[in-house]
From TrEMBL, chains A, B:
GO terms for biological process: peptide catabolic process; proteolysis. It comes from the Bacteria. One of its GO terms (cellular component) is lysosome. This is Carboxypeptidase Q. Homodimer. The monomeric form is inactive while the homodimer is active. Keywords: Aminopeptidase, Carboxypeptidase, Endoplasmic reticulum, Glycoprotein, Golgi apparatus, Hydrolase, Lysosome, Metal-binding, Metalloprotease, Protease, Secreted, Signal, Zinc, Zymogen. It is found in: Endoplasmic reticulum; Golgi apparatus; Lysosome; Secreted. It holds the Pfam family Peptidase_M28. It comes from uncultured Gemmatimonadota bacterium. InterPro entries: CPQ (IPR039866), Peptidase_M28 (IPR007484). Residues 248-434 form the Peptidase M28 domain. Residues 1-20 form the signal peptide. PANTHER family: CARBOXYPEPTIDASE Q, PROTEASE FAMILY M28 PLASMA GLUTAMATE CARBOXYPEPTIDASE-RELATED.
């Protein structure tokens, strides 16, 4: 973040009181939405039912399409308007049977998950070279040829550590390795491997790539440190098949005065093949959906349209995000604000927004209405993967910010289940999404369009 | 705990200063032991090496016997005295292939582990009845016939909740169920099933018994609550084979004046078949072993013998504990004190002892020497499974008490790995075991033999 100049600070202080006054006019509907959201566990129950009914909702699977059908029917039953789906072609990666077997210094099945997009292998057996950074791999490049490289990298931040998952196979192939393993990206595990996407580089061999549980990665490193020769056999039935059709879900409460102006709220409906995806991102989908359902229930029809968008294929392609941008290109200038919830629906703290200063001020003022539930913090720099493509065209975009303490414990694992979310937190996340989207759609002056020039 | 009477309190206050004065004479050797234990990560490294080298050390497996051989060699290399093993016949339960498949309302593989001692089944397929207590099963007994009963019981205390694991199969069989499932016994999980022993009753059919992950158990309960028909197929290749030989490990530092009087320190060397058993109980074994190694290294030969005993088969039979009692029956009256570490070697808090009041006072005085590492709390009522048989014959017995916050997260799971333990906590646990056993063996008056009559 750049330091705030004196001039910008003065502008900011001048703008704030006026915007705050504006927003305070909406205290009554805001309080109604908060009360309605926090009255019961409806949102948690809906999230749990979605997760339990369909299980993992991976792009290209019938389970995802059945979940989409069910949501569409439920939304219609809720009385949402203009409920429909929009076609998206999505990638189809199939995991197949897979295993990582420790052969030496002793025999054991390791806890592993192939990385999304990886090529398969009928079986590659080699000595393992454990490194703790790309820099160490560069230093030991001469030792890596013909080996399986394991990046045993302790979690710092997701942005930093995930590099080893996305780029590991490329960097390992560059030094002649036959496969790439990575310590699961997260701060804590219980022999829980985390999957996620890997990338390839067209100028280098595509080598198979998988994640090990944190525990197993640390064990292999200790074995190497004791001078033991570590050998592993990796088998992966992974295949990339032809693209298949999926859909984004769209539903609205139409604006009473300026229906063509749109506030988008949403999350992504797909999850990884192994993950029930309760927090990532059934909870985010339900937070957006319930926000609009509550407006409907309370008879709060805002000046502008609030549109729920549940994107498909966030996890391994972002095809839904791109398809939404393409299908709605003509109305992009009418997108007042886009709000994504994809950080889990733990205790909400507020929002963070990427937009111009006036847009930030407007949103900050709305945020103050969320003080009763402790979600009134509005920061800069947020957004979301699914709203990224329309933000790139100028739409102010922001993300729901929540307590992230445990998000990366469960991210992309089998343990991303409903019990990890507290019904009270989910309810308050709904309230935050509802108040923010309702007031942004209701207040007389629209939030200014446009994004600041990239520095 | 019973309220302290005025009389007892007066006696206690009178006794304390004298005992404390006695123990304070041993401050110098105690401080040396603490310094030596906390100087490096030797204990953690040894625990990790034991775990990494052999993996799970289940009774009846070659891995357990190889681990025993290795420990014996290492103990000899450390210069411990009278290092030997003592024969024990142990049960041999083999898990085999196993699965629990959800068939309805949707297909999914559940996260399961068969319970130790369970019979197998080539495949039993039935509707599931989810209950949350034995009382609910009794109320719904008529519904249970021919079904698979799932005890979905939230964790309260281990002692209370583990009843559903040990007695579930009996209670389910009593009402005509064909199999018994139990929510894994623990306060938190990441799709991590916990194994452990189940029991049968000779007058009832022996039905297969398994644990589900907490998440899966809760999901089945939600499905039932939604009125869905839950069907599961359980397959278990479990078999109980003939007993096989194993061994307890014994090693000593012989007493310089009264070698026939013995302070026992120990833990159990076996673990469940799926569990690396780092905290349960490689850490406890190493804490006892390192305690004696440090005395040797520092030239601290106490008045009495300190004997390390690493018991075999704690997890599914207690055969090692009983064999030790039987092999040493003649010298039981010479057992001054028995100390077990089997609660994980997390941050040590002190000890808890089951003994007469004078023995308690003596130990409480020694405990004060552990104030520098925060392990000076001495309570009543402790012991350990492996020292239970000799305590029943009058030996004062106690357990190392540690921060148990996460013990039952990992207990009997694949996630009981070295990384869960902090080297500094392991080092301080060694220090606590070393100071307590050294001073108990060194102080002029022996701790009085005998156990209070059971109230």
């Amino acid at each position: 973040m750049k330091p705030i100049t004196t001039l910008a600070l003065a502008a900011l202080l001048a703008a704030a009181p006026a915007a705050a006054q504006d927003a305070s006019r909406f205290r009554a509907p805001a309080d109604s939405l908060i009360r309605a959201a926090t009255r019961d566990s409806a949102a948690w129950n809906r999230m749990a039912e979605l997760v339990d009914r369909f299980g993992p909702r991976f792009s290209g699977t019938p389970e995802l399409e059945r979940a989409i059908d069910w949501i569409v029917e439920e939304m219609k039953r809720d009385g949402l308007e203009n409920v429909h789906t929009e076609p998206v072609m999505v990638p189809r990666w199939v995991r197949g049977q897979e295993s990582a077997t420790l052969l030496s210094p002793r025999a054991a099945e390791l806890h592993m998950l192939g990385l999304g997009g990886s090529v398969g292998t009928p079986g590659v057996e080699a000595e393992v070279l454990v490194v703790e950074s790309f820099a160490e791999l560069t230093r030991r490049a001469a030792e890596a040829r013909g080996k399986i490289v394991l990046f045993d990298v302790p979690f710092t931040t997701y942005g930093e550590t995930v590099q080893y998952r996305t780029r590991g196979a490329v960097e390992a192939a560059r030094v002649g390795a036959v496969a790439s393993l990575v310590r699961s990206v997260g701060p804590f595990g219980m022999q829980t491997p985390h999957t996620g996407s890997t990338r390839y580089n067209d100028s280098l061999p595509r080598i198979p790539a998988a994640a090990l549980s944190m525990e197993d990665a640390m064990m292999l490193r200790r074995m190497q440190a004791r001078g033991e020769r570590v050998r592993v056999r990796l088998r992966m039935g992974a295949q990339t098949l032809a693209d298949v059709p999926s859909r984004n879900i769209v539903a609205e409460i139409r604006g009473r005065e300026r229906p063509e102006e749109v506030v988008v709220v949403g999350g992504h409906i797909d999850s990884w093949d192994v993950s029930p995806g309760a927090m990532d991102d059934a909870g985010g989908c339900v937070a957006a959906w319930e926000a609009v359902r509550l407006m409907k229930t309370l008879g709060l029809r805002p000046r502008r349209t609030v549109r729920v968008v549940l994107w498909t294929n966030e996890e391994n392609g972002l095809r839904g995000a791109n398809a939404y941008r393409d299908a709605h290109r003509g109305e992009i200038p009418n997108h007042v604000l886009a709000i994504e919830s994809d950080a889990g629906v733990f205790a909400p703290r507020g929002f963070s927004i990427t937009a111009t200063d006036p847009a930030f001020e407007a949103v900050r003022a709305i945020g103050q209405l969320l003080a009763p539930i402790g979600a009134d913090s509005v920061g800069r720099g947020g957004g979301g993967a699914d709203i990224g493509p329309i933000m790139a065209l100028g739409v102010p975009g922001m993300g729901l910010e929540v307590d992230r303490t445990r998000y990366f414990w469960y991210h992309h694992t089998t343990a991303d289940t409903p019990d990890k979310l507290d019904p009270r937190d989910v309810a308050r996340s709904v309230a935050a999404m509802a108040v923010m989207s309702y007031v942004a759609a209701e207040m007389p002056d629209r939030i200014p369009f446009g994004q600041p020039a990239t520095p």
